[in-house]
Structure to design on (667 residues):
């Protein structure tokens, strides 16, 4: 006889005789179940159109959860069905590729028309996603974020002529101002989203084209032959249609409007600022004209051709609220939130708290491997066999740096792994040699290039004594802090002496570059507003200083208080790179903003958002011309504040200091 009961610390599922099965909460952890077409079971981690499954798999397995892969039953794709409990047991979280399921423990996913965005939606995907049921208000969308994301998509897709199904590389001439019809095979009809058949759609468009050429492209993979036969049939009847296999971006560049049921090409058309007419149900109907009967088309065409939608704002609203990006550095956190909203917390999924330990073990293995590989390389190089590596300073795909010894001398061993490694080493050695001769003040020196192997991208540098100047600035106040700030400016002035020229400030170009920055990682709406105000201020300054004459120096883009080592009143420049021409005001702004964000001087007196005492101390060196101190210098301060706030947003202390500095700059 079995008795079912419960107890503290776990649940007794069954007791039979004297034996009992005690299952704890950890044992009862829910699985994440992938429902995929059978042909993708073995290789889904290799397929780009299933990229979101890659990310979810990595998240779950890394945190100790369990993944199960099942064949997707056709019932999970049946739009008329209302009960799926026979296929989706309640205790697990189910993720269904191209699903049409609405059940509490299920999420549907599919590419959200264009990469890198995917639906992960409890309502459905594409035409059935949650977006279709929500009202859209462009006034609620941040303009800065919207324009940034829009340009990013244009750069990725439009400029590179990329589309989903391996688009044609050759450029095709398309009639300007045409109506572009994109057939979708039988997909919309099988999914129940089409308001008419393909023939009715095409005849309706041709008969009401008002003299415009109708260009038709068959779907690349779905019932392509049926689409082609329909186009041929209409041609044989003498109807004015032009079939094409052109790259969709060639068509979108020339057309006046797109026509489809709910095609991804309509979204791509928005990137070309082309309006869309839809003959089917869609979740992006907010900025499209929808035709439910053939009689609706003439009015829809007229409305589309005169529409003034802000597609940048719409796409930002759509993708940020109703999709996830596989390129988002916050994706793991967002996935956990989505799972939690579905009722599957980290605890319920059995996620372990030992993730950091796993990651640190992985990093330790990578560090050990990098040291071993570089040590073997050095053994085969002249004088390199005597170098002993001690620890890692930096590791990434293009650059590695180690601390080591060569006899009694401490070294920094820099290894450039990119294709330009040879040129990088040669440029660094040449610049160090030039600075060694140029720095004539007793308190200004530069690191030494001890050994170099350009063909292997390896450079061995002397390890400068002392502590970073930034550390001295951080620990000082009053006149002592001012002294350290001024010394930084004097080092740069000395290092660039004789290497100056005058040029015009290309402020509008710098404005363009700043507007193109991706702001996808800014989540706080107040921070978005702050950046919008700063960009507006920057735009005004850009117009005011356009074309003004400024001083340029052949200096170091790396120049900062972190890269100046201080010992016994001597500054030694480290991390030297090949010099390039840059504005002296930009270098000054970079130095001052970095000091303000990392080691802020808590003072009420500010100068363009920065501590006034730091500002005055730096300018005492006379590095920055008088004419630029109220013009070009604040212009570059605004630029640096914007860049640093965005790029270092994940660092709480810098983020807070940047907020404070930006508010002070704007006040």
């Amino acid at each position: 006889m079995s008795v079912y009961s419960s107890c503290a610390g776990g649940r007794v599922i069954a007791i039979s005789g004297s034996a009992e099965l005690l299952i704890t909460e950890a044992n009862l952890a829910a699985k994440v179940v992938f429902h995929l077409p059978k042909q993708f079971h073995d290789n889904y981690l290799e397929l780009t159109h299933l990229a979101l499954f890659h990310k979810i798999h990595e998240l779950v397995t890394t945190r100790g959860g369990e993944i199960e892969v099942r064949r997707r039953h056709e019932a999970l794709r049946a739009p008329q069905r209302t009960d799926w409990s026979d296929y989706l047991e309640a205790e697990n979280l189910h993720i269904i590729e191209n699903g049409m399921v609405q059940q509490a423990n299920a999420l549907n996913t599919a590419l959200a028309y264009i990469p890198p965005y995917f639906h992960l939606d409890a309502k459905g995907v594409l035409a059935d996603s949650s977006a279709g049921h929500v009202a859209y208000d462009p006034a609620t969308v941040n303009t800065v974020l919207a324009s940034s994301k829009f340009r990013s998509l244009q750069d990725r897709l439009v400029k590179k002529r990329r589309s989903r199904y391996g688009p044609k590389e050759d450029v095709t001439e398309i009639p300007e101002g045409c109506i572009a019809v994109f057939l979708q095979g039988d997909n919309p009809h099988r999914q129940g989203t089409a308001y008419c058949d393909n023939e009715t759609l095409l005849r309706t468009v041709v008969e009401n084209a008002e003299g415009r050429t109708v260009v038709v492209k068959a779907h690349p993979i779905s019932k392509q032959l049926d689409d082609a036969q329909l186009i041929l049939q209409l041609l044989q009847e003498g109807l004015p249609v032009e079939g094409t296999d052109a790259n969709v971006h060639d068509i979108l560049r020339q057309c006046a409007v797109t026509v489809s049921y709910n095609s991804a090409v309509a979204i791509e058309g928005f990137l070309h600022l082309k309006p869309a007419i839809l003959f089917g149900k869609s979740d992006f109907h907010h900025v499209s004209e929808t035709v439910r009967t053939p009689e609706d088309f003439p009015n829809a065409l007229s409305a589309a051709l005169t529409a003034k939608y802000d597609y940048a704002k719409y796409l930002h609203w759509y993708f940020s609220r109703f999709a996830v990006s596989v390129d988002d550095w916050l994706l793991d956190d967002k996935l956990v939130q989505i799972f939690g909203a579905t009722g599957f917390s980290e605890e319920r999924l059995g996620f372990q708290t030992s993730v950091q330990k796993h990651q640190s073990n992985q990093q330790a293995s990578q560090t050990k491997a990098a040291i071993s590989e570089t040590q073997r390389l050095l053994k085969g190089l002249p004088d390199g066999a005597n170098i002993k590596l001690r620890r890692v300073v930096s590791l990434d795909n293009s650059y590695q740096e180690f601390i080591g010894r060569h006899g009694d001398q401490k070294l920094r061993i820099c290894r450039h792994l990119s294709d330009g490694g040879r040129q990088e080493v040669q440029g660094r050695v040449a610049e160090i040699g030039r600075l060694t001769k140029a720095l004539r003040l007793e308190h200004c020196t530069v690191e030494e290039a001890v050994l170099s192997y350009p063909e292997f991208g390896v450079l061995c540098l002397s390890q400068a004594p002392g502590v970073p100047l930034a550390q001295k600035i951080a620990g000082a106040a009053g006149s002592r802090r001012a002294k350290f700030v001024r010394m930084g400016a004097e080092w740069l002035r000395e290092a660039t002496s004789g290497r100056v020229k005058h040029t015009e400030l290309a402020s509008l170009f710098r404005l363009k570059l700043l507007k193109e920055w991706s702001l996808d990682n800014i989540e706080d709406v107040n921070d978005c507003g702050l950046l919008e105000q700063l960009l507006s201020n920057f735009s005004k300054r850009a117009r005011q200083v356009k074309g003004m004459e400024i001083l340029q120096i052949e200096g170091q883009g790396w120049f900062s208080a972190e890269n100046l080592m201080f010992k016994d009143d001597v500054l030694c420049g480290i991390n030297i790179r090949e010099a390039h021409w840059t504005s002296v005001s930009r270098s000054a702004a970079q130095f001052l903003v970095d000091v303000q964000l990392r080691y802020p001087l808590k003072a009420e007196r500010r100068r363009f958002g920065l501590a006034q005492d730091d500002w005055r101390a730096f300018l005492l060196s006379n590095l920055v011309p008088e004419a630029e101190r109220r013009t070009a210098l604040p212009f570059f301060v605004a630029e640096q504040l914007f860049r640093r706030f965005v790029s270092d947003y994940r660092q709480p202390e810098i983020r807070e200091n940047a907020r404070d500095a930006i508010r002070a700059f704007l006040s």
Q: What stands out?
A: The chain is about 40% helix and 20% strand. The chain has four domains: 32-134, 138-322, 358-433+449-460, 467-666. The mean pLDDT is 88. Residues 355-379 form the longest helix (25 residues).
